[in-house]
Amino acid sequence: MYPYSFIQLTDSNTFFGHEIVLFHDFSLASLVFILTAVLLMSKALKKKKYVVLAYKGSNMLEFLWTFFPVFILISIGLPSLYLMYLLEGSFKGDLTFKVVGHQWYWSYEGGDFNDFDMSSYMVPSEDLQEGQFRLLEVDNSMVLPYSTNIRLMITSYDVIHSWTLPSLKMKVDAVPGRLNTMNIFSFQPGSFYGQCSEICGLLHSFMPIHVEFVNWETFLNHVTEESFN
Ligand SMILES: [Cu+2]
């Protein structure tokens, strides 16, 4: 069990996910530091003990109270820019899959091995088997090989949806008439769940995402042997 998963961000299973979590922790630490400093200062000022009656100015003090905020802003801004470029960049990778959002299900297309186009609907609560997650299980989950760079192309058929996997730190808007790309990578096998994250209508809450990361052998068997609708 991962003890902090319940109060912290979920464990990231991808490289840039670690960077995102680090950045989140660092920003939060900076925020707490600033908040504490401001609170202490306002508390100290309220006591009237520190009111300066005749203040002649100090270049050193002015330098410090300019330098420290600028330093904090730069130390937050630089990693933020770095992350932005890291996440924006998409490359061809070893496999390409297309994700299409519909009202209200996802469909996955791929042409690397055999052309397939499968729809992925939520399993209704009454059909759930023991151990399955309510509102998260789908009939056809996306099966991908782990430790492989995969390019996803995300678009929508009708309205804006958002393809989201918190455990992989992925969130890409599916916009009709536009093809968004993002690379997906997991360094371990596993089962990851997500939900549409853009209010898209009546059944918005009932179009979950389920991605299974398996080894290449299982993946090839899945892609070549099964017949997709
Ligand atoms: Cu949606």
From TrEMBL:
It comes from the Eukaryota. Residues 92-225 form the Cytochrome oxidase subunit II copper A binding domain. SUPFAM superfamilies: Cupredoxins, Cytochrome c oxidase subunit II-like, transmembrane region. Residues 1-91 form the Cytochrome oxidase subunit II transmembrane region profile domain. It catalyses: 4 Fe(II)-[cytochrome c] + O2 + 8 H(+)(in) = 4 Fe(III)-[cytochrome c] + 2 H2O + 4 H(+)(out). Binds a copper A center. It is found in: Mitochondrion inner membrane. Its cofactor is Cu cation. Its main location: mitochondrion. It is a multi-pass membrane protein. The chain crosses the membrane at residues 20-42, 63-87. Signal peptide: none annotated. Component of the cytochrome c oxidase, the last enzyme in the mitochondrial electron transport chain which drives oxidative phosphorylation. The respiratory chain contains 3 multisubunit complexes succinate dehydrogenase (complex II, CII), ubiquinol-cytochrome c oxidoreductase (cytochrome b-c1 complex, complex III, CIII) and cytochrome c oxidase (complex IV, CIV), that cooperate to transfer electrons derived from NADH and succinate to molecular oxygen, creating an electrochemical gradient over the inner membrane that drives transmembrane transport and the ATP synthase. This is Cytochrome c oxidase subunit 2. The lineage of its organism: Eukaryota, Metazoa, Chordata, Tunicata, Ascidiacea. The gene is COII.
